[in-house]
Amino acid sequence: MGLFPSVLGKFRGDPPPMENMVGKSPEPEPELPPDMLSSIFALLEVPDLVRAGSVCSSWRSVYTALRSQLLKHKQRQTPCLLYHTSESAGENAACLYSLAEKRAYKLTLPDPPIRSRYLIGSSHGWLITSDERSELHLVNPITGEQIVLPSVITLEQVKPVFDDEGSVHKYELWEPRYTALAEFLGHEPSVYALDELRDYLYLKAYLFPDPQTESYIVVLIHNPEYQISFAQGQGTVGGPFCHQVGTIKNASTRMVYCMQ
């Protein structure tokens, strides 16, 4: 890892001649203030940032505090390629290829297995994924942190179907949405298995973190009819998807317009 010589030069001069070191106890290296370390770390490429966190305990604490904030790391990163490894590596293993370093890193991500998930979107270093129950998760492939997003059944078009034991085993998808009137009029929903709903429901998702409040907003574009839903949370706690907005799609330009 290379830190900036202009910064380090203010705190550490050239090393003394070797002969002057004989018989003397080494003096402790001066430490940078945590706020300055944080400013420096925030400008590093991710591989260098991870390495910096392993130098010593004080650097580790600054690194840990920095990575816990969704948008505190300010450096625009060189794009990386995330891909599955061979099946023998395990269901939770993935590889991240760094274009900046021209090398691959093996990652171990938390459950549900990354191999079985669908990627719905990626923003600010986080992946937005859908598991085999069509539930959404935010996962940071570098730190391994994960946030469970509100359940798919909080979308007003989705209703759970329970089996005899009271467990959800299918989903109903209502178009445009479920209402008592729609059910009374005999409108029939589409029924999907747990792992099939995501194939039709999800189109794209985006993450918008707020570093001042350490909260985030997830914007989900989904069927039917290119609906837009929002979920807001802080830390690992989030509310249901709500505030749905209707849309109109222009087939010739492929532009989607929101209708409030």
From TrEMBL:
Domain of life, per lineage: Eukaryota
Protein name: F-box domain-containing protein
Positions of the UniProt region annotated as Disordered: 11-31
Residues annotated as domain F-box: 26-74
SUPFAM superfamilies in UniProt: F-box domain (SSF81383)
Organism of this sequence: Aegilops tauschii subsp. strangulata
Cross-referenced InterPro entries: F-box-like_dom_sf (IPR036047), F-box_dom (IPR001810), KIB1-4_b-propeller (IPR005174)
